[in-house]
Amino acid sequence: VENIRDFGGPWLAMQLIDKLGLRSFLSEAMPSGREEIGWDIMSQVLVILRLLEPSSELRIAEHLFERTALDALLGLDPEKINDDRLYRALDKLLAHKNALQKHLKERLGELFKLDYDLLLYDVTSTYFEGQCEKNPLAQRGYSRDQRSDCKQVCIALVVSRCGMPVGYEVFAGNRSDVTTVEEIVSTMEARYGQSDRIWVMDRGMSSSDNIEFLKEGGRRYIIGTPKGMLRKYEQAILAQEWTQIRDGLEVKLCQDPEGESTETFILCRSADRAKKEQAMHARFERRIEEGLRKIRAACEKKKQDLVKISHRVGKLMGQNTRAAGAFRTHLEAAENGRVRFSWEKVEGWRDWARLSEGCYLLRSNVKDWSAEDLWRAYIQ
């Protein structure tokens, strides 16, 4: 059997495109001009093959298109499908991004009666090989892919309670998550209107300015808090009044111990998370201790510069911050140009680490939900 081509998948994808009203949207947004193949048709090629077998435009042009019956279904000459035409179709689509997102959100809401009362927001990144000199957004920043040697962009995504995308924005690769909140919330409200939604975000978005911004607009939120904020809730962690919502997971509602906040705080404790954090603390402690021994051996072996040794200790702690508080170091100049170096373990840090492992804290101004409801919304 030769020249086998896929028909069912592309045909079904075209039915879905019609159900979404996407064909008519694309033809109205990008009416035919002097181009040999309409941009609305090329956009459908991109959509269909992204759905069936997500891959690059180059692979679509060189391998995937010829394996499908799209040439017959869309009336296309396979020789006209190339990566340049596909990339230009993306450029044409980009100009209609906001209108397209709004169209899809409204149409999907009609088809599936989706609720947009709760929106989940997070940021990821993707990196590039090369210099990307003509892309001002391509910058070096915190790399989730462990590729700090590459430039990247940050992709901010908002989804509904069930995970349906509502909108996205692309930010510079060196932009921190916490600085994107106000822009994303304002953009979504400008696009879809402001209503009684609940915004759910992780602790990377938490700052006093962001909390104030959300409150000022009458917005409701569930947001993670920095790890350091747990210290204020030491007594609540020690208390026994926990509600178990499943095996290995407990939650409780707390008030600000200083009485300064009108928010509700949700204290959560996970047995699985505790095991993970215990292993991480042990691993980082070992690394630090091994590093400190090497530094001390270097100081005992020959003369060392006090400032350079101090920088070396600082770098070691910076690379293992999760256990840096477990050690207290002492550096001083000794006779004959040597450096006297020693360290000790901090038992107070170890006690707190044991107590807080597996615990995390959420904050919310939603008053009519239980601790379990708030946790379930956040954990999505």
What does this protein look like?
- By secondary structure, this protein is an alpha+beta fold.
- Helix content is 43%, strand content 19%.
- The protein has a nine-stranded mixed sheet.
- Helix 3 (39-52) packs across helix 6.
- It is globular.
- The mean pLDDT is 92.
What is the mean pLDDT?
92
Give, in order, the helices and strands.
HHHHHHHEEEHEHEHEEEHHEEHEH
User: Numbering strands along the chain, what is their spatial order in the largest sheet?
Assistant: 3-2-1-4-5-11-8-7-6
Principal-axis shape: globular
Give the tally of β-strands: 11
Question: Can you lay out the helices and strands and say which pair or pack?
Answer:
Blueprint: H1 8-19, H2 22-29, H3 39-52, H4 57-64, H5 70-74, H6 83-94, H7 97-112, E1 118-127, E2 152-159, E3 165-172, H8 181-192, E4 198-201, H9 208-216, E5 220-224, H10 234-238, E6 243-246, E7 249-254, E8 264-270, H11 271-301, H12 306-319, E9 327-333, E10 339-345, H13 347-356, E11 359-364, H14 371-379
Task: Report a brief summary of the structure.
This protein is α+β, with helices and mostly antiparallel strands.
Name its key features:
380 residues, alpha+beta, nine-stranded mixed β-sheet, two-stranded antiparallel ribbon, 14 helices, 11 strands, 43% helix
